[in-house]
Write a structure and sequence with these properties.
The protein contains 7 helices and 27 strands. By secondary structure, it is mostly beta strands. The chain has 2 domains: 160 residues, Orthogonal Bundle (Cytochrome Bc1 Complex, Chain D, domain 2); 384 residues, Neuraminidase. The strands form 7 sheets. The protein has a 5-stranded mixed beta sheet, with no helix packed on it. A 4-stranded antiparallel beta sheet has the order 4-27-26-25, with no helix packed on it. It has a 4-stranded antiparallel beta sheet with strand order 5-6-7-8, with no helix packed on it. Strand 17 and strand 18 form a beta hairpin. Helix 5 crosses helix 6.
Length: 563
């Protein structure tokens, strides 16, 4: 989503975004940090490595790889006067979170930072990483100091914080459906897939591991550790690693999409690799090998990259490759490409799977971050899209080959620029509007909206066919990861919406959106795993934007009553 996530520019899976978003959202780099010089003690090296790993898992999505933050949204940690002025305050913020306006290096920031669910040793480790990185020269923080400060916060013990991050109660199922918890997960899920016939469910983690889940028994088994297939680059040339796309083809071969920065060249590159299984082990896909690979200039802040892959009715693989910027912004940098978007970013790819090697085509342009897409029974494609940090609506788009959907020049139905420095559209560019939201939910406020509340993080989407009852048959269900850029009073998302779409007199799609489930723990994906049965992946346990992501989530089953 917006950056589990994705980074959703953060990606909010919207900000998700998912990724970024984001998208985190969804980020475990699995890298190591080597101590400087030959005399660094083993214990110090291990502690430094742990601090960096915790930063990448808990802080990177907002504060970025080099601690630079995101201007106007998330404050920098590198060279931060606010951070270094009061170390006990910094500890308190990590333990308790922060809500309200602060001034960092002369610039105001107003947002929400959730508490980090870390024990005292982990909190000390991540703070020491921040205080000793990017030119910072802060003091060393001890676990004892963290414990003392934590005792004065709203969560005086680690257990109190964990209790605040317990699994949310199940919402009421819509009429004609049954909702149940299938399994609580020891990891954060980012993607679901299966053969759609009830033969088990594959769950992708943010680390790139693949697990098999039997919904009938809740049996969970890891079948593909990331270390077995991912081509990870050494720390001195390899940057962040995102693994957010997974699907099966008609031959039940498994495909997984990864993105990793390569720092061996200037500018740094983002390497997209799609792996495909080449064998079967105990009935499950095995032995993943690189099937397709391409690259383009990376970005230090927005790493939406390839987040969703799926086979279309034509038998070819489609991939959503998000924007490398928030809104086409440019800027000089000695290491990173500063020229905005490239010909293969911010768009949907069609990868011709019948060619050897597979051939990439740009199917549609102007799509900032499509975390989910699917096709209806007429073969029409629809994609969710996470918008910019500017408060533009998130989008649902009817995707047609060759069309342009606005990014980075236009968002939703805006005619104004998102930012004063937004680029001008090439002469003659024709934009296609998103689906109009006619209410009553999803951001509708009396007049049509294109399409959802800003920063609500639309994610996975599925079309409901003949296996579903009237009122649902022929509609779409989509998840919304939930915002974390706006204040807690703007708790958009954390839900599943039903979209009933119709063409208007001008031939464009518009629709009514109804809330099906609400109060979910950051739902990130939805998948039909069997006739009449849908599976929802909750990324974590947070049910509103004032909560942290919290511990890992779970899988829910929404099924037609009687199935």
């Amino acid at each position: 989503m917006k950056d589990a996530m994705m980074n959703r520019s953060v990606n909010r899976v919207g900000c998700w975004r998912w990724l970024g978003l984001l998208l985190s959202m969804m980020v475990s780099m699995g890298t190591s940090l080597r101590a400087e010089g030959p005399s660094a003690p083993v214990g110090a090296e291990a502690t430094a490595t742990r601090g960096r790993e915790l930063y990448l898992k808990n802080c990177f999505a907002c504060h970025q790889m080099r601690g630079q933050g995101i201007p106007g949204v998330f404050p920098p940690l590198a060279g931060s006067d606010y951070l270094l002025a009061d170390i006990d305050r910094a500890i308190r913020i990590v333990c308790e979170g922060l809500n309200g306006e602060i001034t960092v290096n002369g610039r105001r920031y107003a947002g929400v930072m959730p508490p980090a669910v870390l024990d005292d040793d982990e909190t000390a480790a991540v703070l020491n990483h921040v205080l000793r990185s990017w030119g910072n020269a802060g003091p060393e923080v001890s676990a004892e100091q963290v414990k003392k400060v934590r005792a004065t916060t709203a969560y005086p013990t680690v257990e109190a914080l964990r209790q605040a991050n317990r699994y949310p109660p199940l919402p009421k199922a819509p009429e004609g459906f049954r909702l149940r918890e299938v399994a609580r997960l020891p990891f954060r899920p980012v993607r679901l897939t299966s053969d759609g016939r009830g033969h088990g469910l594959y769950v992708l983690t943010e680390q790139g591991d693949v697990w098999r889940l039997d919904p009938a028994t809740a049996a969970l088994k890891q079948i593909l550790p990331a270390s077995r297939y991912l081509e990870k680059r050494p720390d001195d040339i390899g940057g962040p690693l995102f693994v957010l796309g997974m699907t099966l083809d008609r031959q039940k071969r498994l495909y997984i999409a990864s993105n990793q920065q390569n720092k061996a060249t200037r500018p740094y590159q983002n390497i997209v690799t799609i792996y495909r299984s080449t064998a079967v082990s105990a009935g499950d896909p095995a032995e993943l090998k690189p099937w397709f690979q391409t690259n383009y200039p990376g970005s230090p802040a927005y790493i939406h990259a390839v987040e969703h892959i799926a086979f279309g009715p034509d038998g070819h693989l489609y991939a959503g490759n998000g924007g490398r910027t928030d809104g086409g912004l440019t800027g000089p940098d000695s290491e990173w490409y500063g020229g905005g978007e490239t010909p293969i970013t911010g768009c949907l790819w069609r990868i011709k799977s019948d060619a050897q090697p597979p051939v990439l085509e740009v199917y549609a342009r102007g799509i900032r971050n499509a975390y989910g897409f699917c096709w209806n029974d007429a073969g029409e494609m629809f994609a969710t899209e996470n918008g910019p940090d500017a408060d533009a609506p998130e989008e649902l788009n009817h995707i047609e080959e060759g069309r342009h959907y606005g990014f980075p020049y236009r968002f939703a139905d805006w005619t104004k620029k998102a930012y004063p420095t937004s680029p001008e559209a090439p002469p003659g560019t024709v934009f296609t509007l998103p689906v109009a939201n006619l209410g009553p939910d999803g951001g509708f406020a009396g007049t049509p909206m294109f399409t959802f509340d800003p920063h609500s993080g639309p994610g996975g989407i599925v079309f409901l066919g003949k296996d579903f009852p009237e009122g649902y048959k022929g509609t779409f269900l989509l998840t919304r990861f939930g915002n974390f850029i706006r204040s807690p009073k703007d708790n958009a998302g954390f839900d599943v919406l039903r979209a009933t779409l119709r063409r208007n007199a001008e031939g464009r799609y518009e629709g009514h959106f109804h809330t099906v489930l609400s109060g979910l723990g950051r739902p990130i994906d939805i998948h039909q795993g069997a006739p009449g049965k849908l599976y929802i992946a909750e990324y974590s346990r947070a049910t509103n934007s004032s909560d942290s992501y919290g511990p890992s989530g779970r899988i829910l089953e929404l099924s037609v009553a009687g199935r």
